[in-house]
Amino acid sequence: MNENEKFERFLGVIRQRSEDKAKQLLSEAKAESESILAGAAKAAEDAAKRRMRDADRIDAGRDIHNMAQMENDVRRAEHMTRERLTDEMFEDIARRLEAYASTEGYRDRLLSAIAKEDMTGAELHLSPRDAALVEGAVADEEIRLGGYAIVYRDKGICIDDTFDLALASERESFSSRNIGEEVRA
Q1: 162: Cβ–Cβ under 8 A, 6 or more apart, which residues?
Q2: pLDDT tens-place string over residues 68-92
Q3: Would you kindly state where each structural domain of the chain is located, as residue ranges?
């Protein structure tokens, strides 16, 4: 074997080792590349899932806020409806009381009730419509529906037996019961 053949053989071995090493490096690079790509894909997938969860949380929060807003709107509408119905009901009662106050039965009841009162040192207050029924009675614009009020100025006492006060008290009691039911609901 001469020097050229040895040299050629040596180059062949070097080339073979270089090719083997190159194949090994390419294989390792490919494996590393696949590993990096798989890791990047997993990281991207995880990031996408996190974003979706965050978006779902934001959407859920928005949905909760919207539902709470709708509940408030329903409560507000319910409250307004109750107020409107209460107004209508008590306006109807007031009309009925006004109608009753124009009857003979009302006049008899009024005069009978006043006759039972001790009027010593007192002023009798009646509605302007009823003031003509009793001599010396004060026509009181505050008494719109009927009834009477007896005022003892020297004692600082007022006995109020008017339909106006009775209706206002009933309305307040009715409204406070409804508000209590609203809070419990």
Answers
A1: 143, 145, 146, 147, 148, 149
A2: 888 888 888 888 888 888 888 889 9
A3: 101-184
pTM for this one? 0.59
Over its C-alpha atoms, the chain yields an Rg (Å, rounded) of: 48
DSSP assignment, residue 121? T
Residues in the chain: 185
Contact indicator for 157, 61 with CB cutoff of 8 Å: no
**Cα–Cα dist 61/59, whole Å:** 5
- State which amino acid sits at residue 171: R
Q: Quick: pLDDT tens for 114-127.
A: 999 988 899 999 99
* Residue 166 buriedness (CB in 10 A; 0-12 / 13-18 / 19+): middle
Burial class (CB in 10 A: 0-12, 13-18, 19+), 143: buried
Low-confidence residues of the chain: pLDDT under 50: 183-185
- CA angle 45/49/52 to nearest 5° reads 140
Tokens 């974003």, residue? 51
Residue 126 CA to its chain's centroid (Å): 44
- Site of tokens 């339909």: 163
